[in-house]
Structures are given as structure tokens and as C-alpha cells.
Records
---
Amino acid sequence: MSGSELAARVRKALSVDTEDFDRRAAEEAERLKDEVREGTFDNTEAIVGLELELYAVDARSGSLRRVPRSLLGLIGFEKELGLHNAEMQTSPQPLNEHGLAAQEAELKANLAPALKRTDREDIRLVSDGMWTVPPTGETATDYLCDSVEQGGVRIATNMSDAARYHAMANTDYPTGMRIEAPHVSLRADTVMPESLITSIQPHYQIPHAPDLPEYFRYALRVAGPLLALGVNAPFFPPDLYDDADDAEIVEDAWMEHRIGVFEDVLNPADDDAPDKVRFPPDFESVEEAIDDIVADETIVPMDVEGGARFDDAFAHLRHKHGSYWRWVRPVFDGANRSSANARIEFRPLPAQPTVRDAVSFQAAFAGLLTTLTSIEHPVRSMDWETARENFYAASRDGLRADLTWITSDGAETTNHDRIYGELFEAARQGLETQGLSTEAARRYVRPLRERADRRTTPARWKHDHVAAAVDENVPLAEAIWGMQSAYVDNQTETLLDGSFVDWL
């Protein structure tokens, strides 16, 4: 698509009347509530799915690579924000032994041929929380900030050609388009800096849609502890750092910068508008959850055309939901009436070193929701503010964060072993409740239990690697790039048939 065609599409999107768009979304929300009350969005059982994002690097140099759009289509992956991004989604499966095995098998079945096909182009697909090596001959700053003006529309040079992505830099909403992190200050003209980060997103479909608020409440309370286990983005591309002492930059690094990047880029830089990316509230009813989507500020209203899908009856609300960025969010959709579902999308986790690690998080999250809701676990009574504090503490310090938990006997604890011992036991019990054998349930939980026992996450592995190099007077840039090379090399051997603990 030419720049002029893309600019025209952006201008068309920006010409849509926001008030009329919001009115239609609100009307659709009322119809959605009716369908939920009638049982249309109920399932006979819990169902799980997973989104997996990757980025591309040069197979020889390890530098970031743009993926040709034709190649992306050949390997069956979807476009994401940056030209270097690729995304795949698993087919929803029942939460049982066969369903989880199918999730893992589907990821491998799609990744294996994709890796072979991209290798012919000297491209390697990487599962990681944040890339750190820019394209050859470019700086990360240039790659993230390069843009042009086309017919009065600001277009990011290295962004995919979806009009909604580019529209975010051209609306009245004061999108931050910046990064503020320890020793990093970046300003851009588009939301392209968000393409630094990649994630996995487990989905859990609720058997009975009106029960979504109860599951959601527990999802918020496990968000911090699960994020602490999954952190995988302690360093930025070196040229993004301000002029500071290398050892100080290493000392001050957060274990998961992905959280801050997403919030900084998309939230307003001041307090004149509400944050779009944030830790969500508890909901008292499923109707309240739907109302929260309706109340969210629309930043890119578009002329939404109807189609043959069942959920096209809620097309404006679904489009609005696309920029309803919460770290945990409710989703209501379905291609047809029989597949309509209410689910929880769990968004805090960065992409993981291996397929097994990603599926372990998916299984643990699903097992926890199963157990905690069924036994009405006392952590339900934890203050929302404490759950939020756990979340941001985990992003900063990973497994060294000060986390608070309420145990099954109602006692408050900050003891690491007690917290994770109870979490893993609850996850195992939930998986067994769904029909998994004890050994199968333990197999899914084991990679995460190993991280907790060893106090080692992918972020800590990266941080230790860089810290050791800097201690030996290796310049920070070389230390980060050396770490990244080791990460990709380890992943090449283990992505499909290993786990992160094999690296230790």
C-alpha cells in the first residue's frame, strides 16, 4: 500500500463522528447484555487459547529484521504493530489434558515450518520480551522514531499499514508517544516505540458468562505473582540510554520494562485525559464490565462495516474494545452464536524463551482460576490496591519483589515460598479438577516452580549476564548485545522442545 493510500485511509478514519460512533457502541452494548442474560455467551466447559508474538532478527548478525509482508502470509502469521513483528493465535480448546496438549502441539506445528521457511531468508523468529539490537546500519532511536508527513497525516516508516495504528498519532487524544524509564527518555511522533515489546496472552473462557466478575477478581490477584515469574525485559537497546554510568544503568534496571513502555507510549503525558493502559478495577457484575468498555474513551473511531459474523451485531463495541487496553480485560465475541463466549484475556506476560514456558503460564493461569473460584479462596478479599501494588512491584523487581498474598487459611503473608507454594498447588489442583493426571498437571507447572525455587527468571538471567560483563569493564552496548546473542542461541536449541530451566 502506498503512503498516499494509507494516509487517505487514516483521514477517513479520523473523519468518523465520534459521538455517533459511541452512541452505536452503547446501543450494541445493551443488546450484548441481553444476549449474555439469555445464556448466548455461556460454554459447557472452560476453554483456553493463547496469543504468541515474536520478532524477527537476522539469522547471522542477530540484528532486528523487517519481515516481508509476503513472507508473513506464507508462514501463516498475522501482522502486528512493527514491520519486524509476527503474531499467531491458537485455536480455542477445552481445558483438559487433550486441550492443553493440543495448544502446545499447535504452537509447535505452526512454528516449526515457519522457522524453516524464514531461515531460507536468513531470518530468525525470536520469542522475547523486548528486542535490543536494532537493524544493521540503524539506531533503535531512528528505527522507532522515523516518520513522514503524507497529506497532513503523520506516518511511521516502520509500522504495519493498518490505518488504526497510524491514526493513533493523528487524533486529538494526547497519546504519550514517549518512554520514561530509568536512564531512558525517548520522544516520538507516533506510537511506534510500542513495537519494542512482545507478549504472550493466555485466554480463559468462562463457562457461565455472568460469573465473569468472580473469575476476573481472582485474575487481578494472581497478576502480580505470575508477572514476577515471567519477567523478561530488563534492558533497552543501548543507544536509548541517556549518558550515565554503565554500572548505574545495570543497577537501576527494572526486570520488566514492557509494562512501562506500553503505558508510556499510549497513555497521555499529562493528567488531562484518562489513562488507556492501566490495571483494571474489580467488577460487581458482567453488565458493569461491559459498561466499562463503553465508558472507555474512543481514540480511533472508524467506519465499521457489518458482516456475516454473529458478533458483527456488536461491531462498533468490538472496535472500541480494540483500544480498551487493560492489563487484564474481559472479551465478548464469537464468529457464530454457538461459539459466542465471554473470556478473560491475561495481558501482563512478556513473550517467553520457549513454547513450553508459554504453555506453562497458560496452564497455570487456567488452573488457578479453576481452583480459586471453586473453593472461594480467601485471596478474593485482598484489597484491590494491594493487588495493583503487587503488579507494579513485580514489573520492577521480578521474584525479588515484595509481594503480599492471603493464604487459604485467611492469613496475610509476604513469604516467597509460602506464596508460590500455595499458587503452584492451587494451579495443580485446578488442572487435576479439569481431568489432568497428577503427573501431567505437575509437568505443566514444573517449569514455573523451578523458576521460583531457583529465584531465577529470564530477566534475571539476562541481568546477571550483562552485570557480569560490565563488572569486567565490557562496555554496556557490547554486554547487552552479547547477552542477546546468547539468548537467541539458547532459544534456537530449546524453543520447540525445551524450557528456560534447561538454560540454567
---
Amino acid sequence: MANAFFRASLAPNTSLPAVLHLKSGQSFVGKSFGAPRSIYGETVFSTSITSYTESMTDPSYRGQILVFTTPMIGNYGVPSNNAPTDSWDVGVVLESKPIQCAAVVVADVAWKYSHYQAVESLAAWCARHNVPGLTAVDTRAITTLLRDQGTTLGRLAIGSDASLSPPKAEEYWDPSLENLVDQVSTKEPYELNPAGDVKIAVLDFGAKANILRSLVRRGAAVTVMPWNYDFNAVRDRYDGLFLSNGPGDPQQCWDAAHKLRRTLVEWTKPIFGICMGHQIIGMAAGLEAYRMTFGNRGHNQPVLALASSGSIKAGRVYVTSQNHQYALKLQDPFPEGWEPFFINANDSSVEGIKSTSGSGKRVWGVQFHPESAGGPLDTIEMFTDFLAECRAEKLKVPFKTQDPMCAAYADPALRKASQTHTHAKQQPIAAAA
């Protein structure tokens, strides 16, 4: 165990000069770590205190220069990112195989790390994935700028590029103009836990692994499909539909929204969406998505429940994990058959919508991440609620069924026993692409 502590990375004095240029005119000079290459991206900040590895592998950060407000990043290193693909896991430990953000900016990178599961340093991990980093800068000042003026396009210049003049305004690359979802979504459908008792289709807009893990560990057989897959052609094979998180502008995904609009009209089985998936549901229902000033990114966002559903109780404030730049507009009246579900307690933005009890539908969308990773687990039971509805639909019995399978997933103790039993019985399947 002794060699697991205080293992060194590349020495700080090997760093190259580096500078972060913002399109708004400010520049921040520091030192580089990770890959010695210059990049463009959208500069955003996250208030997350822990779980930098999960944040950096979240596909929703695609194309972004991620500024951490926490002063020291990298102190517990990076774990091996390999896991089994079976009824308990989905092939990775983190949120995806590669680092997804374009670059990272930290005040003080940890050149030494200490954790029993760590296999490499943050700097070595970034270098291996060809991702540059910037340290020895005042991230408080950068965060203040981004909070006041909004998310800003940036250029991280490293080595000889650091001495060059800042780019001209027209030279900055705006990732939101590209369909980032298409870049991170699976290209072909694949299955996880095929022996599960309830079949869930997942439209992959850039799904975090813990979303898939949260479904699999609750006994679902999951089929992950490309973001623009024609679900309507195969929907009768499934007991529920899930729409994942993803990066970029939801306006790039109207193809999926138009197909979902037909699903909402013709299908009565349960549908659940998170983050980008929530926005796609809203657009299909007739709501408008807009770009926020600086978005919400962090593990401490309070949301107020406006309605009760399953484990969620109206009037309660839940602390949530979030990562988004866009949101749905709150309008009055709401589209027929829909109602607000959650609202952000800080900025009053829409954090969730749901179908009304009189609509004949069972659809929920939330802007936050119930599966967190990292962050609070206040709303994790929304996955249990969703799958309980799917099982009730499959069995064609009321939600409060006495069926042993549904009961196992309604009671935490029984659910844990059921998951352990299922995990023991099933054999691993081939790792997903």
C-alpha cells in the first residue's frame, strides 16, 4: 500500500509557458500540463469540488475549456477506467472512455497524488489523451469574468504559441455551431444486460455511463441507440424510452425532436429524459429552448419540486448535479397536457417538466442529473420510479402492484437483494463499443 501514496507526476519545472485568451479580450498567463498543444474551445466554469475525472469524461463537456473553481485539482489522481460489462456495470469506471473536454484550467494542479485506486496523475492522463491543461492562473478571476459576461469562446495557447498575439475575433471556434451530439453518440445500437426483466431503449445524445449503470443495476435490459435513430419503427419491442444528456445546442437535434413528437402522440408507455433529453422532450412538446448566460455546472444546484411524482414530493428542495448551457423557457400557459416539474431555486430556470395526470401520458424530463457521479444522490430514486412505471406497464397492473418484482424495486432493501441475486445469476456480455 505504501507505493499508492504521494506518487509523483511530471515535475512542474518541465512545464511550457501557456496563456488562455478569451474572445472578450482578457488573457491569463500560466504554465501548461498535459498535452503540449494549443486548442480553441468554449470557456466554461464548474463549481464541483470533487469528481474532476467524472466531469472531464462527461460527453456534455465536448468542445469546452473547463475551468475548475476549486483551487487544487488532481490530488487523488486518476483510476483505471476499465470495468466489466454485465448486470452491474457498463464497461467503464468513469463517464466515458476518453477525456471529453477540450482542455482544463486549474489554479493549482497536483503534481503528486494519493489514492489507493489511482494509476496515474492528472497531468499524465491528460497527456495520454492529448488534452492540454493550464495551471498557475487565478481561476477566481476567470470565473468572475465568465459569471459576469457569460460563457466565452477561448484559445489555450501553449509553448511557442503562447508568445503570439491573441487571435482575432473571427478566428475563435464556436463548438455550439456544430452538432456535437452526433460526434459523441453511438453509431450503432448495442445492448447492455440483455437478461433484464424490463426492456428500455436509450437515445444516446452523449450518455454518461452512470445513467446506463443506474438502469442496468436496477435490472433493466438496455438497448443504446444513436441520437437520431427511428425509435418509432421498433418502439413496440420496448417497455420504456430514455433520452440521455448530451453536449451543445439542442437546436442541432430537431431531427430527434420531430421523431419524438410522433412518439408522444402515438405511444403511451413511460418516457424519461435527462439534461439534453429533457430539452428534446420540451421541444417536442412545444416549448422553446434558449441559451443561458453562463449555464449551471456543479454539484450544488438547488431545485424546487412543483409537483409530486413517485419519490419526488412537491414543495421539497433537492440538491442536484448539473452541467448545461441551455434550458427550456418557462411560459404561461404551458402546452396542453404538460406542467412544470422543477424550478431552479437560484435563477428560477426550468429544471423539469412532466405530463399532466389527465393527459394519459407518463413522461418526465429533468435538467439535472439524478445519477450525479459526482454529486448528491437526492433524486437517484427517479430511476427506480421510472422502471417501476415500466414494469407496471409491462404487467398491465396498477403502479402499487404486489408483484414481487415491482415490490423489490419499490422497497430499497428488497431492491438491493434483487440486484445482488440478478448480478449473481447473469454472465458478462461483450463490452460495448
---
Amino acid sequence: MEARQLVQLAEQFGSPLYVYDAAKIQSQYHKLENAFGKVKHLRINYAVKALSNISVLKLLKQMGSGLDTVSIQEVQLGLLAGYSPEKIIYTPNGVSMEEIEEVAALGVQINIDNLSILEQFGAKHPTTPVCIRINPHVMAGGNSNISVGHIDSKFGISIHQMPHLLRIVQNTGMHINGIHMHTGSDILDIEVFLYAAEILFEAASHFKELEFLDFGSGFKVPYKKDDIHTDVEELGKKLGKRFNAFCAEYGRDLTLAFEPGKFLVSEAGYFLAKVNVVKQTTSTVFAGVDSGFNHLIRPMLYGSYHHIENISNPKGKERFYSVVGYICETDTFASNRRIAEIKEGDLLCFRNAGAYCFSMSSNYNSRVRPAEVLWYEGKGHIIRERETFEDIIRNQVIMDFEPAVAVTV
């Protein structure tokens, strides 16, 4: 999207504002599809947790996507967006058996990552198809908080527990129709991913009625100019060839599944915030915006990088700024960053704001959350209204207290 279009949207819908470019989401989806074009059965399940707006889900459904969900609420969002249950996979962690059974009753594909839950579910529902999430004990991902396939991770059933896993399946007579793994996000080394895939193939060979293998996702996208990213074309060639060979060994064609979130929506997202103050201190020039980590927490939570541009003065002389928010504690988006000269009232644009940005926002400091806009076919469409104070107090139950009575001694 062009700076002038983003400025116009901020003028129309106010700031702070999230904007998503539908064309970029579509091109990323097709890029992944084309990379695995030689695989007979490919299924892309969008990871809802990245960006769960119903209009975005409907856009992806139009392209043929399925959904990867981690809560019953995400399943319900998918159904509301028009997805059929068989196009949704549910991969929870640490949830109750009651929730898993409630989702299973909706006809959604269940994915279990815990031996205890697997045994309980198999004993009660042996005919319900179940996918198993394994932990391959492979360290991958750009940050310890988003690396989930290593030995100390809470996710997945350890590959070293395979004998126990097989015993549960045999004793319950349950139907295993898929094997799943997810090593982590921001994968840099394709060879590490392929190594983990071999572990998944080995695990899959123990089950004779599989329908699909789910390789998770975690493909890295570029955050700045010339930044490294996952080469999905190379991965498609290498993993696609190996997958087809495995299917030949297995005796029938299986479906290769992925569950990308960030890869599909990160680069499509723009976060727009207005500069309230420019503050010079003894060592720093701060640009304080009309937002904070209540709207975009990733820099504070993960140390993530978001390229920031002054779209009100894109060709101005560059100076060094620390861009900070209005939350009443340390609230830093970027430190000592080169940005075109900033004046109060300018509009800053944060790139790569499509994934895990609005979906992790909150009402901290009793601030309202921003509006969301989808840029589709040359026009901005409001897909979430800006919250109001009434939204903040909507579910609060306000008690009445009697005036204190003075006690005479």
C-alpha cells in the first residue's frame, strides 16, 4: 500500500488504526500453494490466533483455506465465518477434557498433544478420528517464547514416548488419522525443518490409517529491507519431493498440511499511530504516539522489530528517535531508530503489523482498542469498529455501597 492511501484511511477512520491489505494476504497464500504445486493433496490451514477478524477468515475461506484453531472460541469464529467443521483442525494445549469433547461434538478435527488426554479421549470416543501432535525435540524459531518443538517445551508428545503412545492407541482401539508437529516460528534454516520432517515421517510409519501429515508452519517473513526469510520455494521443492516419496512408501497419497499464520498476514498489516509529543531529554529524542503496548505488545514482549516510517514526511531528513507509547510504565516500540524528521501531529506507520498484533491487544490503562480496516479492491472497508468507553464497562457489574456509618465511642 502507498503512504497516501494509509494517510487517507487514518483521516477517514481515525488513529490508532490497523489496516490489512487483502491483496498481500492473497499473494502470500498463492505463493505457498505454488511452492508445493507438485504435491497431489495440499491443505493450508490458516492459524486463526495470528489475526482472528471474521472478515479476514472469510477472505481466506474464499481462497480455499482451512483453519488451525487453538480454542473453542476460535472454532466458533470459524463456523460463524462459514467454514465447514471438516475444514477446521483444533490443536489445544492444556485445556479441559470438557472443551475437547465439546469441539469434537461439532465435527471438527481433534489434535491431541498429551498422553493422559489421549488415553482419556480414546477410551470414551474410540471411533472419533484423532490427530496426534508429536514433539520432535528440534530447536527452531527466532525467540524462546515462540520455539515450541524443543525438549523443554510444553507442546506435543515426546517422540521418545512413542512406545507408550502406541500402547494407548492399541488398548483403546482409537482411530488415528493424522500426525502433526510444529517446531516454532521464524524458521531460518530449512535443513532443520527437513530434519524434523524426517522424525515426523518415522512417527507416521507406525500408523496404517493416516489421511494427512501436518508440518505446522513458522515460516519467517522479512521485517526490514534485505532481511532473511524462509525460502518457501526451496522448501517446497525439497519437502514436496520427500513427501511424495514417503506417500509411495506408505502405499497411498496423503494430504500435506500446513498451518501458516504470520506468513499469510504479517506483511499485509499496517499499524498507524499519530505523534502526540516530541520530547527532547538530555540524551534522547522521544516521539510519543497515541498508542502503546496495549495495542501492539510484540516489541515489549518479544523484542520484535517493526519498521517505522513517518508517512506524513516520508522524504524528510532522517534523525534518531525513540518511539514510545502512552502506557504508564516502560512502553517502547523502538529505540534510537532512524526516521524521517517527526513533528507533533505526524502519522507513523508500523510495518508487519498483521500477525499477533491486534489479536494480542488489551484494554490496559482502560484504553479502548483501535478499529480495523481491510483494504480490498482499492477501497478501505471497516471490519471492526473502534471501541468506546461503554465497551470497557459493558460486562462490569457495578455494586452500590451504603455510606459508612460513623461510630461514636
---
Amino acid sequence: MDVIVSALLLLFHVLTGSGAQTGPQSASTQQLLTTIMTAPAAQQQQLPNGTAQPNQTKPGEAQTGTGTSPGTIYVKHDPQPDAPEIKGIYVTAHSAGGSRMESLLKLLDITALNSMVIDVKDDYGYITYPTQNPELLKLGKPKKYIGNVSQMMERLKKHNVYPIARIVVFKDTVLARSHPELSFRRHDGSVWQNGKKDSFVNPYRKEVWDYNIAIAKEAVKLGFKEIQFDYVRFPEGFEKKADSLVFNKTKDKRVDTIAAFVKYAKSQLEPLGVRVSVDIFGYAASVPAAEGIGQDFVKISKHVDVISPMVYPSHYSTGWFNVKDPDKNPYATIKGAMLDTHKKLKPIGSYKPIIRPWIQDFTASWLGKGHYIKYGKAEVDAQIKALNDTGIHEYLLWNANNRYTADANF
């Protein structure tokens, strides 16, 4: 009886507000986004994919909602409760293991930036350092981009850098080619690939789940404090090609399969004291679930510590947020995207994760004359101001070449 009373009291506090919480990717985006919505958006750039966070649960706070057994109270814990507000940059394995790392560390030393998102499994599917882990070597192919990963981690620690391991999950050309049975095949037995010659592995296959989670677990042992999963989805336009491909599947919907992977990954990694984050298209906050690729913004967000919508202004087409050329108005575009994000996640209450968007620190010249502007200090500052004005104080900067605006107001 005492347990029931305690549960009811906790529920009362949540409902009345007395217990209220205070608190990437390379893609054929135009094809993908026209699957999600009618307005097109063009891009050729490789991508990953507050006030205090309004609904971020503090350790020990209770929450209720779907996804738990009837009559139970779900308690969400932040595995990194002492983590700072993250302001980070994307770092390729080539940069992390090469000479550019010195200048990137200096950038963090002299600015308020404090984190690096480093490729541990890259966009092709390679493990980016020479692992000796037999579990990973069964399916994975390591490279020596980061020749001495332990030495790199010590270097990050010396510079007080919060390390985040980026793991590209279902876009995995390497695994698809070496194990076609784990991928999507044409009827002639060949492995399907998109227009850029990239292949995906099958999110229905639990072997693929466990392989990526094993990489994440090794990253934790190396000292990474957060695992960021990217390409947590089916291939773009998948609903148009699924019937012509051969692959194993269950009766579950694609959105439920992807959400189940995220939930499973979270359950495997949280006991290790590491945060789990997921990159997702920024549009996902503004439109219904993308059934074709299996991404449901809300379902994914419920099972992660951090959600990172990729809200690059260059990726919104004419008319979004009442802006003719979103790339030319970064403040209005980011503000509109964040307002939609808050609105989308409000119904899940204390399941709401930290919102830490990817923002643009590159020039989208492919948009064509008159539709883009050169990005520098003013444009980066405008995006950060829009985040702050909508209660978001964490963000990640994306530049595929790892060249960042050093004098921005971070």
C-alpha cells in the first residue's frame, strides 16, 4: 500500500508541476526531404545526422507516460549529470588523427567551445582506429585514421574536452558489401546502393544492432562520455523501393523498428554511465513522422538523453518559417525550427531529452546565386542567438572540412 501511495504522490507532483523538470549526416537530402514533405530542399554537403531545458529530468525525478508497464512510474536518470552545457564541433577521424587536431584543440582552448564529436565509425562504415576487439573484427573493418586512439583520448582530457563518439549506424557500405545478407539486395543478388554508391544495412537485423552497440561499448571503455548515433534510419525514399528489394523483416513498422533500436541501445549503454544521443533531420520536428525512412522524432526522442536535430538553414526550402531564402536568414530559420521542436516534444513531458541542435558553419553555394550567403561570424552568431532566445543553450557546429569560425560569439 505504501508503494501505491508513493507512486500516486509522485504522479501528483508531475501532473501539478510541483515536480516539473527544469531542465549526423551525409545524405541525398532532396530525395529524402521530398519523401517527408512536399517542399524540396537541395544540398550536397556531408552531414552528421535551455533557459534550462524545460522538461529535462533531473536524476531521481519521476515521470509517467506510454512505454512503461501499467501502474508503474518511469524514472529517468542522466548518466552524465555533471556534464557542462555542450558547445561542440564535428571532427573527422582524419582530423582527429592528423595535424589539424592541433588547431582544433587550440580553438577550444581560446573559446567557449568545449566538446568534439569524433568519428569512431564513419560514413562508409569503417572503424576509424586499429581495434583488436575480436567481437568488432567479426563484422567490422578498422582503419588507422586515428593511429593511437588512447593517446588521442589523453590529449582530449588534457585540454578538458568533452568527448562524444559519432557512430554512423545503418549507412554502412563496408558491412553491406562484406555481408550482403545483412543488407538490401536486388533480385539478382547484388547489394543495393544509392546514387552516391552508398549502401545501407538492414535495421531489422539484430546482428547489426549488436555490432554497432559493441562499437559504442568499446568507445565508452576508451573514455568517450557520450555516444552519438547517426543515420539511424532506412535509406532515403525507401518506401518506393522496398518492394523491389530482398531483405529480412518483421511485422513491425519501420518507425517502430528504428525506435526499438534506440531504446535497446539506451538500455545497453546507460548502465555504463554514458549518454546516448541521436542525430535527426531538422524537418522531422516540423512534419509528421517520416514513415518511409522510419524516423519518428517523438519516438526516438523518448529513448535518448540528447536529441540533435540538424537545423542547417541551407536545408530549408523557400517559404519555411515565412522566409523566402532560409539560408539568408539564419536567425528566423533557427528560431522557427526550435519553436517547432519544443512544440513537437512538449507532449512527452519528462521524457523530453536535452535539445542540442547541429547548426551551420559552412557556405551552401550549391543553392545558387541569390539563394545563399557566405557564412561567417554574423551568421553563426545569429543562429546561436536564435537558440538562446528559444531556451536552447547547447549546440554543435558542422563543417565537413572541420574549418570553423573562430571569432563567433560562442
